[in-house]
Fold this protein.
Amino acid sequence: MNRLTGKYILITGASRGLGRQLAIDFAREGAAGVALVARRAEALQEVCDRIREVSPSTRALVVAADLSKEAEIERTVATTLSDFKGRLDVLVNNASALGPTPLPYLLDYPLEDFLSVLHTNLVTPFLLIKKVLPAMIEQGGSIINVTSDAGVVGYPGWGAYGVSKFGIEGMSQTWAAELAGSPVRVNWVDPGSLNTAMHRAAEPEEDPSEWADPAEVTEVFVYLASDESKDVNGQRFQAQEPNWGRTPEDALHANASSQ
Amino acid sequence: MTAPFSFTLPPELSANEPPERRGIARDEVRLLVIDRQTHRVEHTRFDRLGEILRRGDLLVFNSSRTLPASLQGCAAPAGPCMEVRLAEHLPDDAWLALLLCQRGDPFGCGLRPGMQIAFGEGLNATVDERDEHIPRLWKLRFSASGSALMDLLHRLGQPIRYEYVSAPWDLDYYQTVYAREPGSAEMPSAGRGFTWKLLFDLRRRGIETAHVLLHTGLSSYMDDDLDALHPASEEEYLVGEPAAEKINRARREGHRVVAVGTTVVRLLESVADETGQIQAGHGYTRLRITASHTLKAVDGLLTGLHEPEASHLDLLTAFLPAETIREIYEDAVRRRYLWHEFGDLNLIL
């Protein structure tokens, strides 16, 4: 408890699934403020109400926005920084678009859908990082990008989603390299197979009971959001096959041995 | 009060588009460097700033984020429509704003206290009273406040744009790369040339940075007679403890404090005591800096090139004699430097 005391956090895709659970668990760990970003205000309000139950002292800010539009990203960041008085310690780029279902092969992928998925999953995190960086560059901060095993293995049928996650893996590495030596760290997490609406839509023939609940994988995110990981930068984490530790040395060692 | 000197600025020297749209990077604009002691002038490029500054020099930035401060609204019911340019957020949560009629005389809308203005998306404002200092400004009370108002401003507003700008450039073009908390009516544009690459390069060279906050007001009230008087608007500022400590340490250790923008000069000179010591704090300043002002906290200034009659020229005379600035400005015109927020930069050190 209270590993995130005083932290101000922005989470995209916070209305459901992993994002919702992260928001609740971050609040439970004593976060000072959590900005909840997603398209649907009603669903975000439910998360906001839940946060007030588990942590009345956490400031929960609802920002309903379509992050596929650049102006909406600026609105999201400006509203958040205005509310948090210029403070932001953690950004979780969690929102993802799957694309059309059933998932078409790349050969059949409509261009418009392909670009839309790349925009949501890759361009939006890029812009968000750019825009929140000024708030972190002096006092420090943690950027956590959500990736997938589809970002390191090319699975047939995972089309634009997989390509976008390959992009997230590369972009995260580049951000981490450019920010090395600064107090801002960039790491990325593969949460593994989760029982979420998006995953069920992607693989309707699979048994979702075999997949983890989002609540089972938030620990690594708390670790990365907290000061426990303040010297960890440029690392890939697998939430369900823990390759991370309580100290930077542990994390580096575990990561090195898993590669 | 009138400008300390005048000169002729050919219209083609107004930068009408951002450098990135002229085929160069933000930090590839030109840089005119003036030595305060010798008055010697050097012409270089902004991305070579690190070659001019010394290890230990402290750059002080204004990290205020630009608002989409121009709103379109109509007086209800069926009244005149107008552009509302936000100027300042007041301590009592009201706003000072310039109200410009969309048709005919910009000041002929028959504004009066109690008038209701509707902006859409459920946002309304009530016209309160005129500002006692700058009579073109009116006090407005919005139907939303805090983050809800911030959200609506970003849904409804546009950045304030002046006539020399060639296109309705997005708000992003009116932000510095290091902008944080929103609140400025217009971009604190002296810092627009910085890129992260340049900032990291400066850090590697041992050049220090500190961030303060001053939410800028309007640079023009769209009234030539009033603008010529250079009325000093009131602006909200915040200096945190870390910035105050950095500035005081730099001065104590004999390093130069370089303000990035006239807003930072106003702020630091407002909060400095007689010895130049900076106090952290939050407040409002209406300080007007002219040739008679003795600079206490600031050694150098990075700024844009200011148009004839601009009030910023008054401030420059605290750094250099008016005649020197006039000669250098006339030379800059001959050398085809570009003016305004998307233009070239001037370092006085």
